[in-house]
Amino acid sequence: MTGRARLVCVMGVSAAGKSTVGAALAQALQVPFADADDLHPQANRTKMASGTPLTDDDRWPWLDAVGACFAASGDGLVMACSALRRVYRDRIRAHAPEVVFVHLDGTRELFAARATARTDHFMPASLLTSQLDTLERLDPDEVGVVADVAAPVDEIVARVAAALAVLSAGR
Predict the structure, then answer these.
(1) Which residues contact 95 (CB under 8 A, 6 or more apart)?
(2) For a 10 Å CB count at each end of the chain, is N or C smaller?
(3) Assigned superfamily of 3-169
(4) pTM score, two decimals?
């Protein structure tokens, strides 16, 4: 993959493995990795940590910051970002139309087990249901890849990198 085609948003619900897969994918693509969670203002982090889901009004400035990071990245970027709804992905694409989305998909049971086992994240497991209820899968007209997170990380990365190469060749 070359140039702007190396803008990849690894999306999905909490505990899907966005940061883990995203960092490994960035290494495989030889581009920087960023986590959109780091772009949340403290008010958003506090709200989520208390078990309160964010509203769209909470998300818009954050999504604009995510899109701006993609737009400013010259040599490519892989970013972990929930991007659960089409309108959120559209907001990111308004800044950087070349972003390709990688949806990390799996079962509710797998995500719940992972979320419950985490102790170092501000997002409580109690918000998983609201995230799953909010999730809108990639539409057929959205450039992207769906990856099953039940596989080991190295397999997920290999499959996603191969799919991204095919997408890039077709652009």
Answers:
(1) 64, 66, 67, 68, 70, 71
(2) C
(3) P-loop containing nucleotide triphosphate hydrolases (3.40.50.300)
(4) 0.86
